[in-house]
Amino acid sequence: MIKLDGSHLEGGGALVRVALALSAITGQEFNVTTIRAGREQGGLKAQHLQAITTLKQLCHAETNDITLGSSELWFKPGKINSGIYNIDIGTAGSITLLLQALILPALFAPKKVTFNIKGGTCGKWQASVDYLSQVLVPQLQRFVEKIEVKVLKRGYYPAGGGEIKIEIHPRFRLTDFPTLNDWQRELQGKVAKINLMHQGTLEQIRGLVNLSLELEEKEVGERIKMAAIQALKEYQVPVSIRIEYGKTLSVGGEVVLWAIFGEQGKVDSDNPVILGSNALIEKGKRSEDIGKEAAEKLKEQIRTGAAVDAHLADQLIPFMGLLPGSEIQVSDVTKHTLANIYVVEQFLNVKFTVEGRKVGVNLL
To answer: Which DSSP string corresponds to 285-321?
Structure first.
């Protein structure tokens, strides 16, 4: 059994989520103690419980008795299934954080997997569902026939109530191979390695302002959009930002921006370079300041010259572990990234190297 220390480095929930995902695809059981010891309120949260409950169905897993706040988890997976899974986090808990445990095994299921999830679509200390669909999902296309994310309803803190649907059509099904090694060899032979070392030339900037209907009268979305465009003028590339108002249980919203890079006017379809940023709509923050904040965050990522922003870096680590020889140049190597490396190295026969802002992985 793989034993993990939940207090390692930043001591957050990412360690548990990545372990769950890798356990499901490798069939290795694990035990993690002192879960989320680095957080003010430690132990499992609602989105962790929902991830574990769903994985019990998705891969016939067994666990110890766990509840909200449990500090120890034992997880023994079975074989991955296909199917439709309806999940309600029950709070404004992060849909995207939940998916960190579910997407990876679903990519390699026997047939199509559909997740219908209710919860928070954006919030503090998390990537939003729009960041997921625009920045992370393009990197995952290499593994599947098709992956599609649809936002059906927005859900903001504190009430949540957001709804998304994600459909995954697998290409490399684990059940098609006699052993895990055979499957890994097929993957490594036929899937383009993650090679994101050079930023390239900025081609365009896109964005989305999603917010509650109550904010339409004061043109909050329009003011955020104009402030962001003004702050990004120096790049002299097309900037396109959509505004989307909707009925929500709590008043709130977010602006998400992403910069798309290419070489000689072409975006690499295997390894698209996309940097993202966001800013939340919060009470007491001027609309113009919110738009400018998101733009300044994006400019800061662009200035580093990196091909991967800090938030994408830690999310890519498990997928890099499946493709030895992959390497990325990141804007910042965070504790999240290092914690995820620690977990991946426990489950897969690989070794990561971190040299400055370059992260690579090779077979042991």
So the answer is: --HHHHHHHHHHHHHHHHHTT-SB-HHHHHHHHHHHH
Cβ atoms of residues 301 and 275 within 8 Å: yes
| Closest to 287 (Cα-Cα) out of 220, 341, 345 | 220
Question: What is the pLDDT, as a whole number, of residue 115?
Answer: 98
Give residue 338's region: left, alpha or beta (phi > 0; psi -120 to 50): alpha
**Tens digits of per-residue pLDDT, 43-99?**
999 889 999 999 999 999 999 999 999 999 999 999 999 999 999 998 888 999 999
Q: Which residues are catalytically annotated?
A: 336
What confidence score (pLDDT) does residue 11 get?
73
Short-list 204, 177, 205, CA closest to 190: 177
Could you please state the CATH topology (level 3) that the domain comprising 201-303 is classified under: Dihydrodipicolinate Reductase; domain 2 (3.30.360)
Dist CA 248 CA 258 (whole Å): 24
Question: What are phi and psi for residue 177, nearest 5 degrees?
Answer: -125, 140
Note if the bond before 110 is cis, omega within 30 degrees: no
- Counting Cα atoms < 13 Å in the Cβ hemisphere of 174 gives 17
Tokens of 183: 């499957």
Positive or negative, the CA dihedral 97, 100, 102, 106 is: positive
Global pTM reads 0.95
What three-state secondary structure class fits 154?
A: coil
- What is the residue extent of each domain of the chain? 2-196+309-363, 201-303
Q: Is 164 exposed, middle or buried (0-12, 13-18, 19+ CB in 10 A)?
A: buried
Cβ(129)–Cβ(103) below 8 Å = no
For 209, the token pair is: 């302002």
What does CATH list as the number for 2-196+309-363?
3.65.10.20
Contact 244, 209 (CB under 8 A): yes
Q: How confident is the model at residue 309 (pLDDT cuts 50, 70, 90)?
A: very high
- Tell the burial category of 206 from Cβ atoms under 10 Å away from its Cβ (0-12, 13-18, 19+): middle
Contact 133, 140 (CB under 8 A): no
For 356, the enclosing helix (H) or strand (E) is: none
Give the integer Cα–Cα distance in Å for 126 and 142: 24
